[in-house]
Design a protein that fits this description.
heterodimer; A: alpha+beta; two-stranded antiparallel sheet; 2 helices; 8 strands; 21% helix; globular; B: alpha+beta; 20 strands; 37% helix
Amino acid sequence: MEILTGNELTSGGTVYLDAQNTWVEDLQAARVFGKEEAAERDAALAATKATGRIISVEAEEVTQDQGRIVPKRLRERIRAAGPTAPLTLNGEIYDRQHLDEDGHVSI
Amino acid sequence: MYRYDEFDAAFVAGRTAQFSDQVKRRLSGELSEEQFRPLRLMNGLYLQLHAYMMRIAVPYGTLSSRQMRMFAHIARTYDRGYGHFTTRQNIQFNWPRLKDIPRILEELASVEMHAIQTSGNCIRNVTADHFAGAAADEIIDPRPIAEILRQWSSLHPEFSYLPRKFKIAVTGSPNDRAAIRFHDIGLQAATNAAGDIGWEVWVGGGLGRTPMIGKLINGFVPNEHLLAYLESIMRVYNRYGRRDNKYKARIKILVHEEGLETIKGQVEAEFAEVRGGVLTLPQEEVDRITAYFAPPAFTPQPATRIDVAYESIIDPAYGRWLDNNINSHREPGYASVTISLKPVGGAPGDATDKQMDDIADIAERYGFDELRVTHEQNLVLPHVAIADLRAVYDALVATGVADGNNGLITDMICCPGLDFCALANARSIPLAQEISRKFAEPARQAEIGDLKIKISGCINACGHHHVGHIGILGVEKKGGELYQITLGGDATEQAAVGKIIGPGFEAENVPGAIETLVDTYIARRQSADESFIDAYRRLGEAPFKEALYGTA
């Protein structure tokens, strides 16, 4: 199983393609492509590239654990959640990057 | 310090306007990412795991209070309230937004800074001894030559598309604090038989996946011919350096594959062509640039002697700071102060906007308005009157950067690792945090003495693990993280590449493994005066290996 992920152009924030063909912050909203859906995945990739608004787009392998999407690679789990280092700055933990107000991208 | 002249100012303003227009065209969709990516990389703008990362050049690690305050302002206004000082004496911001980049660059230009030469296959920002112009052991202040190299290399048209990136480091002292033997070119001040000061030129050093110690290609190049000689090296590299494989494209591979004598012959042939030409450095130009780096107006200081033993009893933390964070100054009555960015449990090299502002204030009040960034991810006040040390210490305590751990086990170099970096295979910062907590006790750190741990989250070695007395390299194994330990590396004039001594460790076992190595050292050292690296050189790897892995 795979999901599509990338970084939104203006914020650089991590995003996922959801079932409504919108790029969103929430990993759990990502559309999961089965093995038989390679053509749909590739079409979504091509349509995304055509928007020019999502960069570094990749297909990532995931598993589903009790309905939750779990990326296989640690790198992707960190991309989804933000830095893991238990650090605080001015009393706040390192959060992941959030999209700008103009970060809405659909294909 | 150097101040921009009209050419510098026009050049940076022009570049800022150009890149601002490119950003605008990217946001409007006029430029594709494919077109934009090489442009942003020429302007220090990377895409990392979570966001863009902007790397700003600090030429030869020297900056003023005004420039430090600008970093604080950028951190506060456009980022998340902190910055990360790097092993190349630069600063990185981890969370900028693309639309803010033009404004950030304009603000930087207003304090004579930019992000050029912090990325791409060009001659990168030149690095230097962080005690340059202050150290008691220096032959000459290397910053005038570093500045001349900056001017020569900035957007050098012939060297903007090299086979790979190219790094130059320079030191004016025989005690190498700039790791010059691990750069593509390293320059070390030298004196010839006539007493003239010139430069030893080392070539083909580097870290990364193929660590190499630089080789001495010329024992003395006079100032006037230095640019011609360096340009000759660059031309040989640009012509013969491999472009078929990015992992073999650095000059270290060329020197290694062709042999030093072959390369030397090619460089000498080129040098014979260009020597005495337009690249000859007129003495008046050297003098003009040197004048920018004139020593500050030191005032004669009353004989001030600090009784460190006494202070250590009265205030142990201050005593530790005096013991470890003060470096001898060439001017009587003055010292250089290392500001540790390595608090226990912190991210090595990080400073908040408030800390940067406070440090700028301290530099302005007590340090002739001058600061340095070290390649070991600390900051330096190069010129502080010994009589002001207590006041400086108190001010550093107030802003939380007064750890007296310079050179000790908690003073680790650490790359951003997989928490931030798109290239990393494993995390680095959490490991540094754990190790610093394990060895947090000051008495334990003092007992261990000088020990350099360096941590990289991938083979690209931004955390300099190859030259750590103890190096830690994070790798990916079966979807998880594994950490290889190396021993015996040394970035100084006694340059050595560390050796892997056995199988890697899971993250949770690394601090324990470090403790085993440390305990082995303490048990085997001849006295407390024998440092870890000296003991390792005497004993070899066997006792350490046995302690970690047993005798089987």
